[in-house]
Amino acid sequence: MIPNLPPAPAFGEPLEIAAWPEVLAFLARRRSASALTLVEPAPDRATLEALLALAARVPDHGKLAPWRFVVLESGPKAAFAARLEALAQARGDTRAAAKLGKLKSPPLGVAVVASPVAGEIPEWEQLLSAGAVCTTLLYSAQALGYGANWITDWYAYDPEACALLGLAPQERVAGYIFLGTAREAPLERERPALAPLVSDWTP
Questions:
Q1: Alpha carbon separation from 6 to 1, 10, 50, 197, 198 (Å, rounded)
Q2: pLDDT tens digit string along 13-57?
Q3: Which alpha helices (H) appear in 67-150, and where do they start and end?
Q4: Are 110 and 179 in contact (CB under 8 A)?
Q5: How far apart, in whole angstroms, are the C-alpha atoms of residue 128 and residue 41?
Q6: CA dihedral sign, ordered 88, 91, 96, 101
Q7: How far apart are CA 33 and CA 47, in angstroms?
Q8: Left if phi > 0, otherwise alpha if psi is -120 to 50, otherwise beta: which for 85?
Q9: What is the pTM of this model?
Q10: What are the phi and psi torsion angles at 45 (to 5°)?
Q11: Distance (Å, rounded) from C-alpha 99 to C-alpha 196?
Q12: Counting beta carbons within 10 angstroms of the beta carbon of residue 144, is it exposed (0 to 12), middle (13 to 18) or buried (19 or more)?
């Protein structure tokens, strides 16, 4: 379990809006760890379930929960990777087979599946919510001291690979979040300059 994690608030409970400087300090130095450097220990099942509960607190217009989780623990993940490798090799696609290292190496993976609900809420908003789930799961694991990486590769988009994962036709993989302990500290990477990305709207 996650130490010192407060219990989930009751429905209708007032939640104070307050400053959390430690969160800002975390965000200022947050860095994903390479999936290839992730080793045991990974979060245990109770800790993972707590992390998933945190990830499920993202903005969600219409309260649809238009996403779900597929947990890939070490043994099943190895079997899934073997099936993907067989799929790639049957196509003669050695490049795709070689790209499975990031799936094979980490001790734990979670596929965040976008599962849009038909209705008045635009699908785009539901997909953005699934992306927010990926981000929150990634950040929550890292805040607990685990290494984490958000991956999408060919097996996130390939129809046969998605069928192996158990996706319905309308579902999409928002991301694979791989979790473990980083063998080495990740190095800071180049960050974008904000000036070209920020503008003020004027009438």
A1: 11, 12, 11, 37, 37
A2: 999 999 999 999 999 999 999 999 999 999 999 999 999 999 999
A3: 74-90, 94-98, 101-104, 123-143
A4: yes
A5: 31
A6: positive
A7: 19
A8: alpha
A9: 0.96
A10: -65, -40
A11: 33
A12: middle
